[in-house]
Automatic annotation (TrEMBL):
It comes from the Bacteria. The lineage of its organism: Bacteria, Bacillati, Actinomycetota, Actinomycetes, Streptosporangiales. GO terms for molecular function: monooxygenase activity. Transmembrane segments: none annotated. Pfam families: ABM. It comes from Nonomuraea marmarensis. Its EC number is 1.14.-.-. Keywords: Monooxygenase, Oxidoreductase. This is Antibiotic biosynthesis monooxygenase family protein.
Amino acid sequence: MSDRVRVLVFVTAVGAGAQAVEDAYHQISRRLAGTPGLLGNELLRSLHDSDGFLVLSEWRDLDAFRAWEEGESHRSTTAPLRPLQDRSRGASFGIYTVHAAYSGRTVAYAEGEMS
């Protein structure tokens, strides 16, 4: 299918507040601008748990992600979010390859609308 990789980091606002999560996300995202292989990232907030967040980043391929992850700047760049990681589920992050995908007119949007 595709070599693209998605990395999910589970984050919690418990004890720190939602603004702390948002501030850390924006700070890290600005630092990551121009990172080779990074296609983009999003901060998602749970509709079921107002303290639950997820950072989803998309990478060109696993090699690009691993090169960044093993590089010198990884730990310092992501430091603002590290204390906010949600470890209640075990691992606070996951790395996934895109196994299958639909796009275009086959994607259902909010409230059942199709585009």
